[in-house]
Design goal:
The protein is an alpha+beta fold. The chain contains 9 helices and 11 strands. The chain folds into 3 domains: 111 residues, Methane Monooxygenase Hydroxylase, Chain G, domain 1 (Up-down Bundle); 149 residues, Alpha-Beta Plaits (2-Layer Sandwich); 75 residues, Double Stranded RNA Binding Domain, CATH 3.30.160. Helix content is 48%, strand content 21%. Strand 10 and strand 11 form a beta hairpin.
Length: 362
């Protein structure tokens, strides 16, 4: 056992050295020193927002560097103890070595999340495909899956807009996901999700196939590349469509935005305040315009390389099969899980990691 633990630690040490080389820890330390120097400027608090942003960046960077240093120390300290050759020490360190391995794997994923918006919040929208109640129920199952995933990973999820299905389920829903690396993790979910099952809504209990589109956008409030002139947006207010009866808002708090140049329509109605709904709607509109800009850039690059494919309804990224067998399979990475219910309960990290690793190898 002792040699197995040493081999595990040596492999993790090599992986950690590769990762720190990739991110260039020395550059991060120099960046931190420069930012700390800037924070000592006498006029720092003349611009309160800028000062608070700088201090947050310093804290985040400090935390990141401490994590790398602490992990490296843990590996070296454990190796030194194991190399003493005492079997009793080896049994005591078994859990520690396993924990180190998990931490190294987690750091590997964080290195893969190095895109411009990966570290920030996300906006996730689910749209039921054609098929009425079947499709609406499938969209509702996906909504539950992502909310459960957010809860497991300590992300703050808020539903900012919801349109129920005619009979059951969800027609469309928009959810903000707030937390570090929310967008970096969820960007792998963008595309068409396909469900195969025996229908609970079919009296003959036949097998049905349903589709839903998942849209994932970066919530990038500090991105100055998207400017929306007031004259480009038409704002309508209306009464929220609640569940009926006493839940229906008597005041016009719901907000619908029409972006005139693109025809994009955004509605937000889940807050009691019209102001809050308007802010959320503008946030979603900005995110959608940012995505269009990003897609245009990707299309230009992709056409040069001959590989651009736009995510459309026909190109499903993942299939969830509940009958005649249980299997969830991602068609991009070939990653699959036999326990479909665990996936629908929010266990999607394996799919996310497989996607990130595949993208990093391209």
């Amino acid at each position: 056992m002792q040699q197995e633990l040493i081999n595990s630690l040596l492999a993790d040490k090599q992986k950690l050295e590769e990762l720190t080389s990739h991110i260039d820890l020395a550059v991060l330390r120099n960046k931190l020193a420069d930012m700390q120097l800037a924070s000592q400027a006498p006029d720092l608090w003349d611009n309160r927002d800028k000062a608070q942003k700088l201090l947050k960046e310093i804290n985040d960077l400090q935390d990141e560097i401490v994590e790398w240093d602490h992990l490296s120390s843990s590996i070296n300290d454990s190796l030194e103890l194991l190399e003493l050759g005492d079997e009793s020490i080896a049994s005591e360190l078994e859990d520690t070595v396993a924990d180190i391995h998990k931490r190294v794997e987690k750091k590997e994923i964080s290195v893969l999340l190095s895109g411009k918006y990966d570290g920030g919040n996300a906006i996730l929208a689910i749209h039921a495909g054609a098929g009425g109640t079947e499709a609406h129920d499938w969209a509702s199952m996906l909504q539950r899956m992502y909310l459960r995933w957010a809860e497991k990973n300590n992300f703050v999820a808020d539903i900012v807009d919801f349109t129920p299905g005619e009979e059951a389920g969800t027609k469309t829903v928009t959810i903000t996901m707030n937390g570090k690396y929310a967008y970096g993790n969820l960007k792998s979910e963008k595309g068409t999700h396909r469900l195969v099952r025996l229908s609970p809504f079919d009296s003959a209990h036949r097998r049905h196939t349903s589709f839903a589109m998942v849209e994932v956008l970066p919530d990038a409030p500090d991105d100055d590349s998207i400017v929306i002139p007031a004259e480009d947006v038409r704002i309508d207010v209306f009464k929220s469509s609640g569940a009926g009866g006493q839940n229906v808002q008597k005041n016009s708090t719901a907000v619908r935005l029409l972006h005139i140049p693109t025809g994009i329509i955004v509605t937000c109605q889940n807050e009691r305040s019209q102001t809050q709904n308007r802010e959320n709607a503008m946030k979603v509109l900005k995110a959608r315009l940012l995505e269009i800009k990003h897609e245009e850039h990707e299309k230009e690059l992709g056409e040069l390389r001959g590989e651009y494919v736009k995510a459309e309804w026909g190109s499903q990224i993942r299939s969830y099969v509940l009958h005649p067998y249980q299997m969830v399979k991602d068609h991009r990475t070939e990653f699959e899980v036999g326990n479909a219910q665990s996936v629908l309960d929010g266990e999607i990290d394996g799919f996310i990691e497989a996607y990130l690793k595949q993208k990093s190898n391209h």
